[in-house]
């Protein structure tokens, strides 16, 4: 189930209900309607009406708008589109048609049956209840109606929140201890957000959805705010084809969309971007440019293009080319954003919503997004994993580019050093050539006064350098002091040498091995001496005559 801001769906699989199918939802209007108002959408581009819950009175509003150049079909004002992690969002300014309350209220008919759990039904020809209480008999009525039951049903329709509260606290089906068991069952169904709650013999059961205030399987995340403007005309189309396939057949896709728009020569379909989605799907963002009679061109507004694509006949044609969902890429203005943040979505506690707004890490770029149920959470996690994979691929590409740039930089540095050496060599050669050329040019000419003055200065400088008491002696003294200082530093460094722990351990092990070797050598020598003594004694005993 896909969450869409401002609306709640009972049984849905995506934010876009499909092309040509009506989506029935049980939700309050996003801004201003009461609790439990039931809305039903008959498709995009048709005139619709809204009947919000207002404690005693009902109002109806119908909105129509014309489309751009040549399309003229009557449609409702399109909602502002918001796409967060692939889910559709259309809650601001959307017009819907109210339906009877989802909690139901039994009406009278020409052929009526009894209550579901015992009790009597209302109808001109009625039967007994489907499940009668223990020890009770079904009541048969013929040609009679019960006004109190109709009033109670009307009260249930007008106050669905009270009916839900009654279903989970005090159901009135049997009037005994079995009602407490039914209440606990209804509480469980309300907590997990699925099932039907029977609470009265005079009212239809309540369908629990994930948007009910008692459901526990809900949390709040954050999605990026859209930055595109309505004037940009961006409309996102989710295709059931891979990104590579869409890019290869992009021309055919543009031609098909142009044919769907009536093949008008004043319209041009352009593709802004193509990106892949989880599940071997892809997203294509398009915009349409209209050329006017005076030669100027303008982009069709995103809301107008979305309204045109939402017509039943165009939806079927888009579905034929593989479009599964579409969203108008438009940013929220300040009033819409403030209105959304000030009113928590259906089924979200006000305290939890306020805390989510305070915990928003970047209020200028992120917006809190409720997640109802495990399906929505899993879908969000799948999108995050897929986005992480895409980011990792991009980082790998950037890393490869950096490695190539580093290699090219190293090569450039080496070539630069080589060119510097060549430049110095060529400079010296050029200087030698200039000297030789100047020598040849002035050969046979007398020395000029400037040259004579320069010669005298050079000779005086050479004499000062070679004088033992002048610069040469000082240079020799400085060189001797430098050598002495270097020797002192080397001796100090050698005396103050510090061994690290690993080197100390290695030296200790080496010395221990040397010591063990010496001990073994000493023991061998001692044994050899003892053997020599025994040999010596044997020789002496052999040569000395016995007396």
In summary, what is this structure?
With 547 residues, the chain is α+β, with helices and mostly antiparallel strands.
Explained architecture:
With 547 residues, this protein is of the alpha+beta class. It is 45% helix and 14% strand. It has 13 helices and 16 strands. It has helices at 147-158, 160-169, 178-192, 243-248, 250-260, 302-309, 312-320, 334-342, 350-358, 373-441, 449-466, 471-495, 501-543; strands spanning 23-26, 38-41, 49-50, 61-62, 97-99, 123-125, 142-144, 196-197, 206-207, 218-224, 235-239, 267-277, 281-291, 297-299, 323-328, 366-372. The strands form 6 sheets. Strands 11, 12, 13, 14 and 15 form a 5-stranded antiparallel β-sheet that branches. A hairpin with a 3-residue loop joins β12 (267-277) and β13. Residues 1-157 have low confidence and may be disordered.
Fraction in beta strands: 5-15%
Biggest sheet layout: 5 strands, antiparallel
Number of DSSP strand runs: 16
| Helix/strand order | EEEEEEEHHHEEEEHHEEEHHEHHEHHHH
* Gyration radius over CA: 47 Å
Tally of alpha and pi helices: 13
Q: Shape from CA axes?
A: flat
Terminal residue distance? 125 Å
- Sheet/helix structural class: alpha+beta
- Enumerate the spans where pLDDT stays under 50 for 5 or more consecutive residues: 1-157
Mean pLDDT: 73
Helix content: 40-55%
SSE arrangement:
Blueprint: E1 23-26, E2 38-41, E3 49-50, E4 61-62, E5 97-99, E6 123-125, E7 142-144, H1 147-158, H2 160-169, H3 178-192, E8 196-197, E9 206-207, E10 218-224, E11 235-239, H4 243-248, H5 250-260, E12 267-277, E13 281-291, E14 297-299, H6 302-309, H7 312-320, E15 323-328, H8 334-342, H9 350-358, E16 366-372, H10 373-441, H11 449-466, H12 471-495, H13 501-543
Antiparallel strand pairs: 1-2, 2-5, 3-4, 6-7, 8-9, 10-16, 11-13, 11-15, 12-13, 13-14
